[in-house]
Fold:
Amino acid sequence: MNNYRFLAAAAVALFAFSLYRATLLPGFDFGDTGSFQATVGSELLTPRDAYPLYFAIGAAVVRLTHLEPAFALNLASAIEAAVAAAAIVFVAAELSGSLVAAVAAALLFVVSYTFWSQAIIAEVYALHALFVATTMWLLLRWSRQPSLRSLTAFFGVYALGFGNHLSMILLLPGYAVFLLLAAPGGWRSMLTPKVVLVAALCALGGAAQYAWNLRTLWFQPHPPDSMADALRTFWFDVTKSDWRDTMVLNVPASMLADRVHMYWFDLRQQFGPIVPAVAVAGLAALFVRDRTRAVLMLLLYLVNALFAFSYNVGDTHVFFLPSHLMVVLLAAAALGLAYPRAARGATQPRALHAVAALFIVYAGVRAYGDFPALDRSADHRPTNVVEQLAGGLQLAHVAAERGEQQADHRPVRMPLQQELQVRLRFCRRALRDLRGQVQAGLEMLRIELQRLAQVGHGTRMIAEQAV
Structure:
């Protein structure tokens, strides 16, 4: 069975990578993606940059492939997403007991709209999905065959995931409750000195990834005065304290109804209305068959979904990804538990295969429909916009800024990342000038409005006196 699982997982990963590579963004993009592409490969990583593991993997891909950093980081996301798809096969098979149901669930997630969109650009969410799926599989495997070695593997990978994204903390309630409920020696066995020590060492190892970010503070123009000052700055920037307090759990009450409609739209955009209904049946079946695993899945879904629901940011949809993963895993559980292999009669496994095949066909139909909207293989708009913003910047100016010219005075062609960094510096200077002009214009507008208000007040007084 394990050999079949590896083959099925490899096939799903190959399909996922082929799909993502065919629709991969060829270069630069805006937003966080552009920031990641400009930062990867730098020896200095500030606390505000965060994501040390993500940048370390990205830098390794750049060095190994010798590709332009922007494209290499996009490619890294496709690779990470494909490996995540393979991990989902193992998790779904562990939950459902059915390999064909696991393949169907993994393919549904592979072609889901949001995950597909994040797998073809430089973003952290493909790697985050990989860590979510891998830690779930390690935890379920430990519950089936408990040992200190398997528990250590789970602790280690879970701690490592924090180097990619701090939202790994949202898995903690579900994981902690499951460990206490599933511990073979009772919940007290999870609090023995040996287990606590292993967990603490893994936590320290995970936190040590951020030493890269902390170290950079002393290379800035204004280094910290002390370690305490450095730690305060580090924590403020890494956790984004300046905007976290205004965005986390801060959706206005007047928008709650809109949020509910938004979530239902987002869920249907990923899977349509059928898969969520099947997932509800899967959760009910899990409660009947294995209540401990059902509690795990319910907590993982609720904590991640409620956090995303209450997170008042523009890209809320990407924070729903872990809860979307729970939906497809529960759908797999519904298929596998509805047709157990141990049941009498030979028709039930065939029925399972038929239903799972329908879900695989359904995934293919959704992929076919969403392909045109998600295909970014010929999307050069971001690069074109940057070139338009830096319209007067010629490569000669770029080379002059680097101090490099050939013997015939022709400018030296530089890698795209360096060229974009120079262009972005030029754009920032232009935007600063534009901001100054806008501020001056707003000040003139304010003065004019005050004058008009005074004129209007004087006119009203004259009219009142005339009356």
